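The freezer alarm interrupted the setup, so I double-checked each line after restarting. Inputs confirmed:
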Amino acid sequence: MATENTEHGPTAGPAVLNGRSGSTELLPAGTAAPDFSLHVTPDQTLSLGELRGKPVILAFYPADWSPVCGDQMALYNEVLPEFQKFGAELLGVSVDGVWCHRAFAEARHLHFPLLADFEPKGAVAQSYGAFRNADGFSERALFVIDKSGIITWSYRSPVAMNPGADGILQALEDLPK
Amino acid sequence: MATLKTPVTPEDHVQGPENAAATLVEYGDYECPHCGSAYSIVKRMQKHFGKGLRFVFRNFPLSEIHPHAESAAETAEFAGAHGKFWEMHDGLFENQERLGGPLYLELAQEFGLSSAELRQALEQEKYKGRVRADFRSGVRSGVNGTPTFFINGKRHDGPFDYESLVQAIEEATGKAQKAISA
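Predicted 3D structure, all chains:
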């Protein structure tokens, strides 16, 4: 199943151990997605379990406030209607705190939740094998989780490379109807 | 390697001969400052390669961060439906800091297009579907920001300054020629 990691990846390079960053292997397709509960606003949390019954796109990214026009979250914001055609929920996750996320989401008019993997820092990213220990932030890692909570596709992009949305759309298309 | 999933068709906005050695497809946004810089770079490249380069422009408006991107794209498509796509495309990029209704109407008048018809097309979002179709084809091809270039169907992941793009095109066409002679 692990080989499926790269099948629809927009760029070459399998999601394998990256020695330099000290990060581990991404959870592969076929694995049950670890549940979590993270702050989505200062007084609200969201857990993965609440979204059971819908496909979920989990997009880990290193940090808010990367440059505007090539920004991954800004792109996904525009692609949102395409994700919604599959009934999928998109969640952005980084180690930034809720206030930072709020300012970022307001500045970019984001219409999907950003979760704060803030305390203990990066714990959720760790549980998905998507944390860069040496850097203290998460990988640019994508997961598509089916409605029963199983990961059906995962993909890691180089940190400096916006992975786009084509792999996600293909993975959503490949979900059983 | 991300590749262009929607091939160039007669529906596209194209400059340069069909049999050019290199086809450069840009997914761009009229309000994106990087696309503004790319605009003059593409012009220089067209001069440099002459008939060796075919250039195609497709819409990829990031409307949540660029509030005029969608209306500008629809204006260009309106002009395109009346045979004036490139005039409008150039006019929009050359006046990027003034995007908005007054500029669109001014340009329409300059190119002999009906401003009433343009206003109606924008109000009725007549060209929204076309713009969205470009956007979707870009997403499926791995467009991850603006501008994104494809050279002979392959996404160009390097920098998009003049020298880098010229070099990438030369490499692509060099390979193409070798493949033909092989």
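Quick read of the result. Chain B has a mean pLDDT of 95.
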